[in-house]
Design a protein that fits this description.
With about 450 residues, this protein is α/β, with parallel strands linked by helices. It has 13 helices and 33 strands. The N and C termini lie far apart (about 65 Å).
C-alpha cells in the first residue's frame, strides 16, 4: 500500500441529522465532529485507515465550520501518527460538489498513485489490501466501495451500482424507486460513498473539456462524476465491503451505534475506550465502577455484582458516571459525567456528556445530546421512544412523553404541550405552538 493517500470529504450542513449536527440553533456541528462511542467520526475514519497502512491524509473541506472543527480535532495528525493537510479556504467559493472538491485537491496537491476518497460522516469496516488488488486487476480509474443491501432497503435511500457483462460499472441509479430494482435479485450493490482512485488518470479525466464544464455547474461524486466516467469510457469498478454505517439521521445513527457496540465492526472494536470489563462484558470505565451513588453509598461494581443494577450487552459507560439502584441499561452509550437516577431503564440510547437523567425514566431508541436535563421522577416518569433526538442542553419536564420527536438545542419541553409524534421543534415558536394546541 505504498503511496496510498486518504482524502476525507468534509462538507454539507447535516440537515437530515439535526439536531445531532447543531451546537445551538444557529451554530453547526460538522458531521465529521459528531461523536460515536467516545470518538469523533473523523477520528474513527483516520484510525481505521491508519491501521491499514494509510498515514497521509488530505481534508477536502467545504465551509469554515467544517474546516475549523475538523482541524481542531485532527490538527496536523501528530497525535494519531499521521500527517494531515487541509484544502484552501478560497476553494469554497467555487465548490460545486464532492467530485469537484476531489478533482481540485488532486491538482492542488499534485497527487499521484492511489488515494482512497472517503466520507467523514460514516464508519466502515473493510479490507483495503483486497480492494487495492481488485482495483488493479480491473485496471480501474475508480473503484467504488459498495454495500450489498435488499432492494427494499436500498430503494429511495441509496445510490445503486449496476455492472455490465464485463464486471465493470455501467450505470448508477441515484436513490431509485423499488420498481426499478425489481429484477436486481435478492440484493443490490449500493454506493458507500468511498472511492479508490488512480490519481493521475482521474486528473487527466478531469481536464476533459466536457467534465471541466460540468464541474463549473455541479459535480457530486454519486450524481455526476461517476455517471460521467462510466458513460465516457473510463473504467469504473465496484468492490463490496464488509460494513458501512450510515449516520445521516437519528435513526441511522442509533442503528449504527448499536452495531458498533455489539462488535459488528471489528476494525473499531479494539479501539473503543474503555475496553470490555469483567462486569457483564460491558465497557465500563474504572472511575464509574468505583463511583458511589448518593442514595445508597454503594459503588457501581457492587450494585452490578449484587444485581441491583443490570447491564445488558452492547453497553459503553464513560468516566465518572453515577448510576442509581434499579437501573437497567442495554445497547447504550453513556458519556462522561452522566447521572442516571434510580429505577431508570435505557435501551438503545446515546447519552452525551454531563447529562442528567432523573429517577424512573423510560428511554428507548433515543439520542440525548450533551448536558441534557431529563427531569423524571419516580412518580411522574419521562418516557422517550421511537428515535427521539434531543440537542445539547435540552430540558424535558417531569412526566413528559415524546415519540420520534426532534428537539433543537437549549429548548425546554414541559408535560402537557401536546407535541405530536415525529414533530421537529427548532425554536421557541414551535414549542409555543404546541402549548397553544394543548390549551
Amino acid at each position: 500500500m505504498d503511496g496510498v493517500s486518504g482524502i476525507a470529504l468534509v462538507g454539507g450542513r447535516g440537515v437530515r441529522a439535526r439536531p445531532l449536527t447543531l451546537h445551538s440553533s444557529d451554530c453547526l456541528r460538522s458531521k465529521a465532529a459528531m461523536s460515536l462511542a467516545g470518538r469523533s467520526l473523523i477520528e474513527w475514519a483516520v484510525q481505521t485507515l491508519r491501521s491499514q497502512g494509510v498515514d497521509r491524509f488530505f481534508v477536502a473541506a467545504n465551509g469554515g465550520q467544517n474546516r475549523a472543527q475538523t482541524k481542531a480535532i485532527l490538527e496536523h495528525g501528530e497525535r494519531l501518527g499521521v500527517s494531515v493537510r487541509y484544502s484552501r479556504t478560497r476553494f469554497d467559493s467555487g465548490n460545486t460538489g464532492s467530485g469537484e472538491a476531489t478533482l481540485r485537491c488532486l491538482e492542488h496537491w499534485d497527487l499521484d498513485g492511489l488515494a482512497l476518497v472517503f466520507p467523514s460522516d460514516s464508519v466502515f469496516d473493510f479490507d483495503l489490501d483486497a480492494m487495492i488488488r481488485a482495483h488493479r486487476a480491473a485496471d480501474a480509474v475508480v473503484t467504488v466501495a459498495s454495500v450489498l443491501r435488499p432492494p427494499a432497503e436500498a430503494a429511495g435511500k441509496y445510490g445503486v451500482v449496476q455492472r455490465g457483462p464485463d464486471g465493470l460499472v455501467r450505470r448508477f441509479l441515484e436513490k431509485p424507486e423499488l420498481s426499478a430494482l425489481a429484477r436486481g435479485g435478492s440484493r443490490v450493490e449500493t454506493n458507500a460513498g468511498m472511492y479508490l482512485v488512480d490519481c493521475h488518470r482521474l486528473r487527466m479525466a478531469g481536464r476533459e473539456p466536457a467534465l471541466a464544464a460540468l464541474a463549473l455547474r455541479s459535480l457530486d461524486w454519486g450524481g455526476d462524476l461517476l455517471p460521467y466516467l462510466a458513460g465516457h469510457g473510463h473504467r469504473v469498478a465496484s468492490f463490496p465491503i464488509a460494513r458501512f454505517g450510515d449516520l445521516g439521521s437519528p435513526r441511522d445513527y442509533l442503528t449504527t451505534l448499536r452495531e458498533v457496540l455489539r462488535d459488528e465492526y471489528p476494525l473499531l472494536s479494539g479501539r473503543i475506550d474503555p475496553p470490555p470489563s469483567p462486569f457483564a462484558g460491558a465497557r465500563i470505565h474504572q472511575s464509574s465502577l468505583c463511583l458511589k451513588d448518593e442514595a445508597t453509598g454503594r459503588t457501581l461494581a457492587e450494585k452490578i455484582t449484587e444485581g441491583t443494577v443490570r447491564i445488558g450487552p452492547g453497553v459503553r459507560i464513560g468516566r465518572d458516571v453515577e448510576i442509581g439502584p434499579g437501573v437497567a441499561l442495554t445497547d447504550s452509550d453513556i458519556g462522561d459525567g452522566v447521572d442516571i437516577g434510580a429505577g431508570s431503564v435505557l435501551r438503545g440510547v446515546a447519552c452525551g456528556d454531563h447529562s442528567v437523567i432523573g429517577p424512573g425514566a423510560r428511554i428507548s431508541d433515543t439520542f440525548l445530546g450533551a448536558m441534557v436535563d431529563i427531569r423524571s421522577t419516580a412518580h411522574r416518569s419521562v418516557v422517550l421512544s421511537d428515535f427521539c433526538a434531543l440537542g445539547d442542553e435540552v430540558r424535558i419536564g417531569t412526566g413528559t412523553r415524546l415519540s420520534g420527536v426532534r428537539v433543537y438545542p437549549r429548548l425546554e419541553i414541559h408535560d402537557g404541550l401536546g407535541i405530536p409524534p415525529g414533530a421537529q421543534l427548532s425554536c421557541l415558536q414551535d414549542v409555543l405552538r404546541g402549548l397553544g394546541k394543548a390549551a
